[in-house]
Amino acid sequence: MNFFEFPGVKISALAAAVPDNCQINMDLADLFAAAEMQKFCENTGIWERYVSKNGITASDLCVAAANEIFDKLDVDRASIDGLLFISQTPDYMAPPTSCVIQHRLGLDNCGLVFDSNIGCTGFPYGVQMACANIMAGCKKILLLVGDADPERGWNGNISKDSLLFGDCGAAAIIERTDEPVSPIRCNLHTIGKGYKSLLTPFGAARHQIADLYRERGGEGLEGMFVAGGVMEGTDVFTFSITDAPKTAKQFFTHFECTADSYDLISIHQANKMIVENVVKRIKAPKEKVIMSLDRFGNTRGASTALNICDYAMREGIHTGTKHILNLAFGIGLNVAIADFELDMSRCLPIIKTSEAFDDGINNYTYF
Questions:
Q1: Backbone dihedral region for residue 266 (phi beyond 0: left; psi -120 to 50: alpha; all else: beta)
Q2: Counting CB atoms within 10 angstroms of each CB, which of 32, 81, 287, 321 has the fewest?
Q3: Could you tell me the pTM of the whole model?
């Protein structure tokens, strides 16, 4: 477990984008028994989500969120000297999607550019990575966190597990400052022995898709890739309600604070039951815990950032400073915490986009 404290660094902008395509879970009752779907929505707390189609990827959503910051908050693109893209759904196996994003955003002065697939802890983990690079010499970093699956729910192989997830891209600017702001503080905790609890085993070097097709001839494999991997629900639930609160309590002890020290608490929007258990175990005042799960679902790495943008938009809070705790947990298994002050005038409303990048590549002419 690691604790970090970064003085003289602030988050100066925050934005989020979702696909312009809302899917109401109860509209899918024809695929499942209506009573079963009702129970699913009540238990998970997820009634609707925004899901990608027509080729919209995580990078498209992140680019839309970043452009919103550049356009609405008058940020000079030439001032960005670092770009981090955190996603488990990159555009390509290679090169890093962040390199393409740098080109798409016109960040010609940006040399530090890299991807990470850290997962559901993406936003607070990304804040730590951005701050570390700023302390090492960067001045202003664009952090992008997002996931999107354009195939989910559009090929007849929809599963109830897929109804948990929505698509989103979040963008934040993290920079050096001489202003008298509280330091950004982070805590990272990894339990690698639990890697099989959330695992997508096929498609990379250890278990190659070509080998799988050679051995099985493609029979019954389509649904496997649509499902995306293996999730041991009981193990994930136990980890979420045990290790996440434990890590948070250690964070509170180390930095001599409590859940009540914050104006807002943004917890990874896994599902209703998990969030409620975590809230109870860290003794968080319920009025400070913000939720977007019912309307956006589990947006994975971007969820704690989306949560903040949704709160500001719903409550019409666009002035003043809020001290915010971010707590996320997920695949790895790992837990990440970041707390920071945010000027709410720099937190933009969530936008919806239907724009997808055309890279000129298709299945017939590239090879």
A1: beta
A2: 287
A3: 0.94
Taking Cα atoms as reference points, which of 304, 300, 340 lies closest to residue 323?
340
Whole-angstrom distance, CA of residue 252 vs CA of residue 234: 27
> What amino acid is encoded at 44 in this protein?
T
DSSP per-residue letters across 127-141: HHHHHHHHHTT-SEE
Q: Look up residue 255 and give its two tokens.
A: 């930095």
Output the six-digit token pair for 310. 């949704």
- Which of 311, 335, 306 is CA-nearest to residue 322? 311
Q: Which of 98, 137, 147 is nearest to 297 (CA)?
A: 147
User: For residue 298, what is the DSSP state?
Assistant: B
CA distance 107 to 102: 5
Note if the bond before 333 is cis, omega within 30 degrees: yes
Is the CB of residue 186 less than 8 Å from the CB of residue 338? yes
Q: How many CA atoms lie within 13 A of 158 on its CB side?
A: 18
| pLDDT tens-digit series, residues 265-324 | 999 999 999 999 999 999 999 999 999 999 999 999 999 999 999 999 999 999 999 999
**DSSP letters spanning 165-198:** B--EEEEEEEEE--S--PPEEEEEEE-GGGGGGE
> Are the CB atoms for 41 and 273 separated by under 8 Å?
no
Q: What value does the CA radius of gyration of the chain take, rounded to a whole number of Å?
A: 20
- Residue 23 is encoded by which pair of tokens? 């899917």
pLDDT in tens, 124-154: 999 999 999 999 999 999 999 999 987 664 4
Nearest-10 Cα torsion for 68, 74, 80, 83: -10
Query: What is d(CA 361, CA 350) in angstroms, rounded to the nearest whole number?
Result: 30
Tokens of 216: 């099985």
